[in-house]
Amino acid sequence: MHYLVTGGAGYIGSHTARHLLRPPGSRVTVVDSLVRGHRQAAERLQAADPGRGTFVQLDLRERPALADLMARVRPDAVLHFAAFTLVGESVSNPAMYWSCGVGGTSSLLEAMRAAGVPRLVFSSTAATYGAPERMPISEDTPQRPVNPYGASKLACEEIIRGEVEAARRERRDFSATMLRYFNVAGGSDDGLRGEDHAPETHLVPSALQAARGMRPALQLFGTDYPTPDGTCIRDYVHVEDLAAAHVDALHALRPGSCEAFNVGIGRGFSVREVLAECERAAGRPIPVEVAPRRDGDPPMLLSDPARIMSVLGWAPRHRTLGPMAESAWRWMQANPRGYAG
Ligand code: UDP
Fold it and tell me: What is the atom index within ligand 1 of the atom nearest the CA of 202?
């Protein structure tokens, strides 16, 4: 099988690309603009198995170049990760999020259609649900995004669903699965891949940076939420488990199917609980500075993962924070400057 992975030099894409290369004989072409992705992540993939991983630097909105590549590679399936992913940034620069999300995804779908590529797994997000009051969030929870990041991902889902319906009507073979991620943390089991964002805004790497003295303190955004310890509750999934979910989704795609699945573990942890686990992994205290609430942060986001477990048979290997914090710490200790180091 040959897979084309957009955004394969980024955090989740690079972990998934490595999983896709595990079966002997499989091949992966990574496409990444390197605006946020890392050349070294693609190089590590190529080094893992020379000859089976290829890297192409390309923005998906370069339509003719993408169409050429798709026609040349003619992959069996596409896994589409390429996107900007920061909520705050999407609020201050909505056009960039809509252009990259909707522009990139529609360009990709056109190229897939022209080349007759029949399978797509799309990287979606719990942010498409917005801030629902009822927890846990199932796939039937109404999708009412509250920021441009979530809204543009929801628009991509709608375009993809429309493409599947059009293909069904025209009796073309095309199917897609959307995976709606909750919070993601951790690094690869082999220590070669991990989170490397600039600037880093996510909780686990930010806390570990504070533990290493790379930032003065972890800013704790809000201690007055209506939760047991006053801090926000999120559902964290290990990046290796999330990567495995993509492989499961790929194998379950059937002609004409269009499915969406939440990916979370179905357990919530507060920011303070995450910090305690990060301190344990780092073996040292983390300086914390209590700060006001961050705009747009709902008190609690918790997935109901029943559907992905029953339909795809996916089950997370890690159901606690420990392995996420430990693998993230190992990655950071080995790569304090990220991939550039
Ligand atoms: N958070 C925090 N300090 C930080 C980063 C995050 O207190 O420096 C909190 C944030 O308010 C949220 C949780 O940690 O409640 C997870 O945030 P993250 O940015 O990792 O993911 P998000 O939930 O935004 O996808």
Answer: 20
Distance 232 CA to ligand 1 centre (A): 8
Half-sphere exposure of 249 (CA within 13 A, CB side): 31
Residue 327, CA distances (Å) to 40, 70, 186, 204 in order: 19, 35, 5, 11
Beta-carbon count within 10 A of 194 CB: 25
The pTM score is 0.97
Tens digit of each residue's pLDDT (9 = 90 or more) over 201-235: 999 999 999 999 999 999 999 999 999 999 999 99
Q: Which helix (H) or strand (E) holds 301?
A: none
- The whole-angstrom distance between residue 256's C-alpha and the CA centroid of its chain comes to 24
Do 42 and 9 contact (CB within 8 A), yes or no? yes
253 Cβ neighbours under 8 A, 6+ residues apart: 77, 119, 121, 175, 176, 177
